């Protein structure tokens, strides 16, 4: 069995396996830049590459106990996780339907799917729901309508708006919280 002390990342992975969160932070500080670059070469977009790395670090944390130094370097193990996550994202294909930057800037209600437009137009102008939805900023309102009227998943919304998945999720979560507060 290889000596983990000869591989600082291997030592940090061992600490992660024992629940040391600071070890994960040290791995992140040492490797995140390289990992984002690897993921970006595969997925071709910085925002998706960052998402791959975020998901990868969750996997590194939860699977650190599976690292075996006698089977390869810790760096190779970490890079393989990121590479595999990036390739899985490409295979998934859910982010292929993207809008250009200009399209995002000029995105109006007419650019939205028919069901979303129809539902928005069908709301009574004096209804409480319409009033509360109008109180939201445009991106949150659009994300909520796409999710709950159009039936899009968070990933599909992120792909259509060319946004990071985390941003889309937080817009929807915050928008729903504002709606609940307004409707109460």
Automatic annotation (TrEMBL):
It comes from Rhizobium rhizoryzae. This is RNA polymerase sigma-70 factor (ECF subfamily). GO terms for biological process: DNA-templated transcription initiation. Residues 28-95 form the RNA polymerase sigma-70 region domain. NCBIfam families: sigma70-ECF (TIGR02937). Keywords: Sigma factor, Transcription, Transcription regulation. InterPro entries: RNA_pol_sigma-70-like, RNA_pol_sigma-70_dom, RNA_pol_sigma70_r2, RNA_pol_sigma70_r4_t2, RNA_pol_sigma_r2, RNA_pol_sigma_r3/r4-like, WH-like_DNA-bd_sf. Belongs to the sigma-70 factor family. ECF subfamily. PANTHER family: RNA POLYMERASE ECF-TYPE SIGMA FACTO, RNA POLYMERASE SIGMA FACTOR SIGZ. It comes from the Bacteria. Residues 128-179 form the RNA polymerase sigma factor 70 region 4 type domain. Gene3D superfamilies: 1.10.1740.10, Winged helix-like DNA-binding domain superfamily/Winged helix DNA-binding domain. GO terms for molecular function: DNA binding; sigma factor activity. SUPFAM superfamilies: Sigma2 domain of RNA polymerase sigma factors, Sigma3 and sigma4 domains of RNA polymerase sigma factors.
């Amino acid at each position: 069995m290889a000596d983990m002390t000869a591989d600082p990342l291997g030592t940090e992975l061992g600490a992660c396996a024992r629940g040391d969160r600071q070890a994960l932070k040290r791995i992140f500080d040492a490797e995140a830049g390289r990992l984002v670059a690897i993921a970006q070469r595969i997925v071709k977009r910085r925002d998706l590459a960052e998402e791959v790395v975020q998901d990868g670090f969750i996997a590194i944390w939860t699977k650190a106990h599976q690292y075996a130094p006698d089977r390869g370097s810790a760096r190779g193990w970490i890079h393989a996780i990121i590479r595999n996550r990036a390739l899985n994202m490409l295979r998934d294909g859910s982010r292929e339907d993207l809008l250009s930057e200009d399209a995002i800037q000029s995105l109006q209600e007419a650019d939205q799917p028919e069901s979303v437009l129809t539902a928005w137009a069908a709301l009574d102008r004096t209804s409480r729901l319409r009033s509360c939805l109008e109180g939201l900023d445009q991106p949150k309102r659009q994300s909520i309508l796409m999710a709950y009227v159009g039936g899009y998943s968070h990933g599909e919304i992120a792909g259509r708006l060319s946004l990071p998945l985390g941003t889309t999720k937080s817009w929807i979560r915050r928008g729903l919280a504002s709606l609940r507060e307004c409707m109460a």
